[in-house]
Amino acid sequence: MRRFHLALPRSIEDCLKLLAERGPEAKLVAGGTDLLPQMKNGLIKPAAVIDLSGVADLRVLRREDGAGLRVGASVAAREIELDPYTRSTYPALAESGALVGSVQIRNLATVGGNLCNAAPSADMAPPLLALDAEAIIAGPRGRRRVPMADFFTGVRRTVLAPDELLVELIVPAPGPRSGGQYLRHTPRRELDIAVVGVASQITLSDGVCRKVRIALAAVAPTPIRATAAERALEGQPLTAQQIARAAQLAVEAARPISDQRGSADFRRHLVGVLTRRTLTTALERAGR
Amino acid sequence: MAKQVLSFTLNDVDTEVLVQPYVTLLDALREDLALTGPKEGCGTGDCGACTVHLDGKPVASCLVLAMQARGRSVRTIEGLGRFDALHPLQDAFVRLGVPQCGFCIPGVLMAAAALLAENPHPTEEEIRYGIAGNLCRCTGYTKMLAAITEVAGAAPARRA
After folding, report:
1. pLDDT band at B160 (very low <50, low <70, confident <90, very high)
2. Are residues A161 and A236 in the same domain?
3. Tens digit of pLDDT for each residue in A97-155?
4. A189 and A144, same structural domain?
5. Average of per-residue pLDDT across A224-251
6. For the whole model, what pTM was predicted?
7. C-alpha distances in angstroms, B98 versus A77, B89, B139, B141?
């Protein structure tokens, strides 16, 4: 790796000071599983690296009364995968955590890193989009809340300014009669990158869908929501016919490219299949 | 660029070493601390040959900056057992002749030891999942599975 200056802050305030001093030439490192390979192959050459591993305030994973779940930016994928409350209340999020890399990677890779690296295929993005999560961002002028739907601005680009830091995600409690699932397609079961990923999250009342969220990964420059498919299901019973219609609308929302992982046509096909499967499981988990 | 003091617990021993800020934990272990058990296979976290325990959890040490281990506990294959008292997994790997070229074995043992510490009686599926981050280019997975299964006291693994 090319030489760099390494800063070891212990608080969010220290991080912000360091970012204010050398923001544009600095990189934040949390788990390092995305950053270090990019630095080793010379793709990025930061003059300064700010290590977040000593900042305890970024490692909160806690249920908050009334607010839902607080997930600190430095919480590891493995913690999300294993956390009992996340598994029971936010299964789609826990499932996405369990799919990142191998156990050796999941113990390092963080939810904040997954989001800020902003790969179109980021596994933890679709569940957080589908769960209406909000990002808490700290900067020199205080904190701001950004809905996940507005967080990604392009391939490897987010709303974060060079002097800002992602602190945590607030994930509202889905409420009773809710269910969700995240599924992805990969040629290998482990250590692979999603060809397509889909998260569905529903809330039922009186036999119909009161709230529907469907989010897609790896079919557009950023993770996206399939809003037309969501609207088509709202107020409707989740019959096989309705699910098939939503799956078709989700396919139409996808704008995939063809690359070495799969053709655009194959990706569109997968969006349909995975939307149908995740909606079906979401319905089972919500309790019919 | 000035070296920094890395102060941590290494294989149960309080350790201080001067490291460059831009080196990985794997390089510090191998180059500065002469622990060559952890191997560099890919350097990108794909192969698992560099697996060590960081605060008891298996991690790819090629993706950890050495200074990120400050104040923490690191265990390498050198600290898994002793020469006169091998870890049960090491003993089983020797008796069943698991290693072929041997390059992946330290990483596999550290992954398997972490799995059994967390889940002493895993199913075959859980064992496969637990070592899925470790590549063996000799493809010697069948005997690994048999050895880990034996130590776990699980039902014998079916043929892979």
Report:
1. very low
2. no
3. 999 999 999 999 999 999 999 999 999 999 999 999 999 999 999 999 999 999 999 99
4. no
5. 97
6. 0.95
7. 31, 11, 11, 8
DSSP state of A28: E
Please provide the DSSP assignment of A163-226 as one string: T-EEEEEEE----TTEEEEEEEE-SSSSS---SEEEEEEEEEETTEEEEEEEEEESSSSS-EE-
Shortest Cα distance from A251 to chain B (angstroms)? 32
Give the burial string for B9-18 (b: 16+ CB within 10 Å, else e).
Answer: bbbeeeeebe
Chain A neighbors of B46, CB-CB under 8 A: 191
CA distances A282 to A90, A126, A200, A217, A244, Å, are: 11, 14, 7, 18, 14
Task: Name all domains of chain B by residue range, CATH numbers in brackets.
Answer: 4-79 (3.10.20.30), 88-152 (1.10.150.120)
Q: Look up the ipTM and state it.
A: 0.95
What is the Rg, in whole angstroms, of the alpha carbon atoms belonging to chain A? 19
- Mutate: best of B25, B47, B59, B115, partner A, most A CBs <10 A: B59
Domain of residue A278 covers: 178-286
CB contacts, 8 Å: B20 with chain A: 3
Per-residue pLDDT tens for A260-283?
999 999 999 999 999 999 999 999
Residues in a beta bridge with A7: A50
Q: Is A112 left (phi over 0), alpha (psi -120 to 50) or beta?
A: alpha
Q: Which of A223, A173, A221, A222 is nearest to A201 (CA)?
A: A173
